[in-house]
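Hi all, long-time lurker, first post. I run a small reading group and we've been trying to get comfortable going from sequence to structure in the token notation. Rather than ask abstract questions, I figured I'd post a concrete chain and ask someone more experienced to write out its structure so we can walk through it together at our next meeting. Sequence below, copied exactly:
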Amino acid sequence: MNRKELNPEKSPLDAFGERLRRLRDERGWTQDELGLRMGYSGTHISAVEVGRRSPTRRFAKKADDALGTGSLLARQEKAVRETALLDGFPDFVEKEVQATEIRLFELTIVPGLLQTPEYAAAVTTGEVRRGAISEFQAEERLSKLAERQAALERTPTPMVYAVLDEGCLRRVVGGPEVMTAQLDRLIAFAELPSTVLQVAPYDLGERRAFDLPVHLLTLPDRSNVAYAESVLQGRLERDIGFVQPLLRAYHQLQAESLSQAASVAMISQLRKGNP
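-- Answer (accepted) --
Happy to help. Here is the structure in token form:
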């Protein structure tokens, strides 16, 4: 049976999965057998081992109890929890690189896929200064963002629809030079044949469909998934009963927002310093 090679140097999440597998192998247990001792399914154990799912505190404690490893995995789970990638985000990225269509809505800052390296670095530097993340977490976040942006150049190229609240354009990040380059990047993005860029203006008011960022993916089989984040965790939602209303609201938002031509005109005006 083919098994995914694990690289513990890649990230704390991969290091946890590699150690869990190694400890399980040393005891000669299958994933189902370990899962039975812990109260989890073998599928859940597999997802943690290969890094598709982050371990929780409860999971790590149950693993330590089952494997007789004291608090070894509990300590390692803490390192995983301190990384910049939220639970659920690796699942989202795995689907994002497969998507034929990507729909984004952002409220406060330019979405990651559209950020320049300097803009992205300014965002993470601000978080480091506030103590929200560590320098290691910032580097991890920037590395993952670069990988996601590079994946957009795949063939066939996915269609990317982006709606930005006007605040994303007017909020200066990284200083005037960084912001000017970021606005140039948005204009260039809008000129691509596989993109649609729109601005949701302030005067949209209560007609704006969302009060939180939205990520919607259409996969090759035409199924749709949604990804949402809170401060502490991310969640990839596949249930059509949850996703379909979001898609409908997104289409309504697009209809209410400025056209791409009007949106580019607004960005160009801000680029010239004439809001």
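A couple of things your group might point at:
The longest strand covers residues 159-165.
The radius of gyration is 21 Å.
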